[in-house]
Write a structure and sequence with these properties.
2 domains; 60s Ribosomal Protein L30, Chain: A; mainly beta
């Protein structure tokens, strides 16, 4: 399986996780409000401090983003591009957001593909501090009760990355898991094994923001460039002969700016830096 050497030392446990409760809700974002504040206030109104959001259809202006890029130093295995600020903003076609906290303040991690004001199709990593909601919209979100995604320094990648930690607050129900999958393990396989180990009969994925080492899709599609920004568009782990089978659809941009989408081939899509998501046992 493809592998990228990270600059630091990882932990034996390759999934960071917290079992919690959760609740889906409709998140209304008001036009003219900075995206981070709009998300924060919408989650707070429902009693939540963390969760995930499906971004499809969201219009943003002004809008700033970065794409994956090669690292110029050995401090990181890959890095970010310069910042892009397209005139006319953008309309997100598909995207996912993890909302949590960083340095004691609200923060989000969001990847998406979009159409810019001049019609250009692009994608990448949305910058929280320079992006504003352009049109009022209601999106689908899941809030967490008993867990928060918190950005903390990661000794393996040398980035500050979201991972789940135990936290109080929120009004949820059911059986949910906040997860972070770490580098150089097959993404589908890791989630299948996680469900088997925890006695989860079937699960649906909410959110899903991360990176894979290129991509291999069912049907033969291939992304060779190793540095990607990925958003899950739909995902489920279901019983299959001999165990579990993950069906995970994604959209991504690689460091050349090329876009791709499809269903991840099981056993052939290792995580590059991180992948955070919420699993709901059903």
């Amino acid at each position: 399986m493809r592998r990228i050497q990270q600059p630091g030392t990882g932990t034996p446990e390759r999934i960071q996780w917290v079992e919690c409760r959760g609740r889906g809700f409709s998140l209304t974002l008001q036009a003219g409000v900075p995206l981070l504040e709009a998300v924060r206030s919408g989650f707070a109104a429902e009693g939540f401090a963390s969760g995930v959001v499906k971004l499809d259809g969201l219009r943003l202006s002004p809008f700033a983003y970065v794409m994956p890029a090669l690292s110029k130093t050995p401090e990181h295995a890959a890095f970010y591009s310069d910042t892009y600020r397209p005139e006319g903003g953008a309309r997100i076609e598909v995207g996912a957001m993890t909302f949590g906290r960083r340095d004691g303040a609200p923060f989000f991690h969001a990847h998406a593909l979009w159409v810019e004001g001049d019609g250009k199709h692009s994608g990448g990593h949305i910058l929280p501090d320079e992006t504003t909601v352009a049109e009022t919209i209601t999106l689908q979100a899941v809030g967490l009760d008993g867990a928060v995604f918190a950005a903390e320094p990661d000794s393996e990648t040398h980035f500050k990355l979201f991972g789940p930690v135990v936290a109080s607050g929120g009004a949820g129900e059911g059986r949910f898991f906040a997860l972070r999958v770490k580098p150089n393990v097959d993404f589908c396989g890791a989630l299948e094994a996680f469900c088997a180990e925890r006695g989860i009969r079937e699960a649906v994925i909410h959110g899903g923001v991360g990176s894979t080492i290129g991509a291999r899709f069912t049907g033969g599609g291939v992304v060779e460039n190793f540095a990607t920004e990925v958003a899950i568009t739909a995902g489920r782990i279901a019983p299959a002969a001999g165990g579990f089978e993950a069906a995970i659809d994604v959209a991504l941009v690689d460091y050349s700016g090329a876009l791709a989408s499809g269903r991840l081939k099981r056993g052939d899509n290792p995580v590059l830096m991180t992948f955070e998501l919420v699993l709901e046992a059903i």
